[in-house]
Amino acid sequence: MARRKKVYEGKAKILYEGPEPGTLVQYFKDDATAFNAQKKDVIEGKGVLNNRLSEFFMTGLAQIGVPTHFIRRLNMREQLIRSVEIIPLEVVVRNFAAGTLSQRLGLEEGTPLPRPIVEFCLKDDALGDPLVAEEHIIAFGWASQQDLDDMVALALRVNDFLSGCMLAVGIKLVDFKIEIGRIWDNDFQRLIVADEISPDSCRLWDMETGQKLDKDVFRRDLGNLADAYTEVARRLGVLPSNVTPASKPTLIN
């Protein structure tokens, strides 16, 4: 059997050529990184959990009319996705102060924000994914004003959906980041949600205890990352309720 052609490898995923034109296979690795990959480890089962959780969120978004690159899950670690032209920006939506926002503005972590705040960061690991203003984005041609308006609208719809999902299972959606890509239907351009949505890209806190259930567990040495992600999956129904966090992830079909 011929080996698949690798198209791209990032910190948490590998992209391979898909079986049909315009498709890719997205493989979720067990690698965990923080602080722009200065801290690294391999967390057994992380890729399996993120594959299933991202499938759950992308499928839910499609059901409410939010377009995504997700086509279907192929196996425990891979999913078939549409090939898109990724806009070189991370779109960050914040509902509560945390992380760099707390550091920049001197806000106590957990402070509710007056409304969801949408920020843009340039996707550039060498520069540390710096925060950029809309003026920078338009001046350097990374996206047009119409693109920015559409990206904000998409991000806020994703925020509404994710906030509701998490609230229903006792989890506070503090913030998250998404990537957005362009696809073309003949001469018409559309923007769709791409990459992944998982605890790798969200801050998730237990509503009663404040326990962190996201990658901050790894960043701040707060416990076992797989246990935290397993708890999120269990609450959302991606895992059967009788799985104990200490065990290896056992996912339902």
Automatic annotation (TrEMBL):
GO MF term list: ATP binding; phosphoribosylaminoimidazolesuccinocarboxamide synthase activity
GO cellular component annotations of the record: cytosol
InterPro entries cross-referenced by the UniProt entry: SAICAR_synt/ADE2_N, SAICAR_synt_PurC, SAICAR_synth, SAICAR_synthetase, SAICAR_synthetase_CS
PROSITE patterns from the UniProt entry: SAICAR_SYNTHETASE_1, SAICAR_SYNTHETASE_2
Reaction it catalyzes: 5-amino-1-(5-phospho-D-ribosyl)imidazole-4-carboxylate + L-aspartate + ATP = (2S)-2-[5-amino-1-(5-phospho-beta-D-ribosyl)imidazole-4-carboxamido]succinate + ADP + phosphate + 2 H(+)
One of the Pfam families matching this protein, by short name: SAICAR_synt
One example of a Gene Ontology biological process annotation: cobalamin biosynthetic process
Enzyme's top EC category: ligase
Domain SAICAR synthetase/ADE2 N-terminal: 6-235
Matches recorded under Gene3D superfamilies: ATP-grasp fold, B domain, Phosphorylase Kinase, domain 1
Keyword terms, alphabetized: ATP-binding, Ligase, Nucleotide-binding, Purine biosynthesis
EC number: 6.3.2.6
Annotated SUPFAM superfamilies: SAICAR synthase-like (SSF56104)
Similarity section: Belongs to the SAICAR synthetase family.
Protein name: Phosphoribosylaminoimidazole-succinocarboxamide synthase
Organism: Kangsaoukella pontilimi
Gene behind the chain: purC
